[in-house]
Amino acid sequence: MIKGTTKILGVVGYPIVHSLSPVMHNAAIEHLGADYVYVPFSVEPENLAAALRGFEAIDVQGFSVTIPHKQAIIPLLTEITAEARLSGAVNAVSRTGNGWKGTNYDSFGFVAPLKEMKEDWNGIAPVILGNGGAARSVLVGCRSLGCREVHVFGRNPRKLTEFADSWKNTPVHDVLRVHAWNELVELISGTRLIVNATPMGMYPRGDQLPVTEDVIGHIQPGTVVYDLIYVPRPTLFLNKARERGAVIVDGLEMLVQQGAKALEIWLGRDVPVDVMRDACLEQSKPAGSRSGT
Ligand code: NAP
Fold it and tell me: Which helix H or strand E contains 192, and what residues bound it?
């Protein structure tokens, strides 16, 4: 129940209507009986600074950050953590005594389901499709797993060069190898982990694939194929990879794990990850099959 004492959390993005974060966080808040509410804030890029001033005025305690603000928000914050600095993006912000502190839990969320598999990721050489914001967190995550080399594929040579340059003087630089899209076939059969960090196949374009059928035909049985997309789940890419004998992972657990970590920091207590996962699973079902709908 929202009362006069209720503290505000939220998510800032544009558009924000499809975000699962409000359902996920409010389920945990309700389960804990915490005096908080988590609100979606639809903020256009040119209004981000004004939104932050407003958050300060109405005493927002913390908020998640999603597309397209993850990088743009950095200069507006008082401090950022080493994780956020390394990945060059912020996905969670907390109120401090003198302003806002940004961090990034996407890498944490990304590696969580891989660690559960109890495979030894040390020494493997993953393939990452795409070189946008999420690919940065995946790269940091792969390095934290001990991967020997990480192969990032991009379709735009200028952006790929900028991506590679941005890691100079960081510990990630030594493991990073960047490639043009047409080099994929050569590497795909030799890797044990493939990550789709492009939006290809995401709702409402569920018929799209990030790579050609020819490339999919080179995926070896037993390879872990991980798609960061969580609507639909699984994606067409994951379905096709499973037909090749791959072990598939979708993006829902990454979303849940990064969200749980942020909520734990904001509330200063353990949070019910299972409740958050169940809320997301329920919400991401097709509308007609949701309980109560
Ligand atoms: P982004 O910053 O826009 O980056 C997208 C990347 O995909 C860019 O490198 C882009 O290349 C590439 N790309 C787009 N269309 C492509 C195509 N047709 N062929 C080849 N490459 C293409 O987006 P993002 O924030 O990284 O998000 C990427 C995906 O990850 C989204 O689906 C998002 O929902 C998902 N995600 C999931 C989670 C989670 O918790 N599960 C967290 C973050 C992101 P160009 O730069 O050349 O356009």
Answer: none
What is the CB < 6 Å shell around ligand 1? 67, 106, 109, 130-135, 154-156, 159, 197-200, 202, 228-230, 251, 254-255, 258
Distance (Å, whole) CA 15 – CA 45: 10
For the segment(s) 107-250, the CATH number from 3.40.50.720, 2.20.28.10, 3.30.365.10, 3.30.1360.120 is 3.40.50.720
Pocket test for ligand 1, best of 198, 200, 249, 250 (most atoms within 8 A of CB): 198
Rounded to the nearest whole angstrom, what is the distance from the C-alpha of residue 200 to the centroid of ligand 1? 8
In a 3-state reduction of DSSP, which class is residue 50?
A: helix
So what's the pLDDT on residue 284? 81
DSSP annotation of 148: S
Q: Hey, do 7-104+253-289 and 107-250 end up sharing a CATH topology, with the first three levels equal?
A: yes
pLDDT value at position 288?
52
Residues 101, 77: contact at Cβ < 8 Å? yes
Structural fold of domain 7-104+253-289: Rossmann fold (3.40.50)
d(CA 12, CA 28): 19
Catalytic residue (choose from 3, 7, 70, 261) = 70
Q: Is-above-0.85 flag for pTM?
A: yes
User: pLDDT tens for residues 7-46?
Assistant: 999 999 999 998 999 999 999 999 999 999 999 999 999 9
Contacts of 73 (CB under 8 A, 6+ apart): 12, 48, 52, 65, 90, 93, 102
Check residue 287 and give its pLDDT.
59
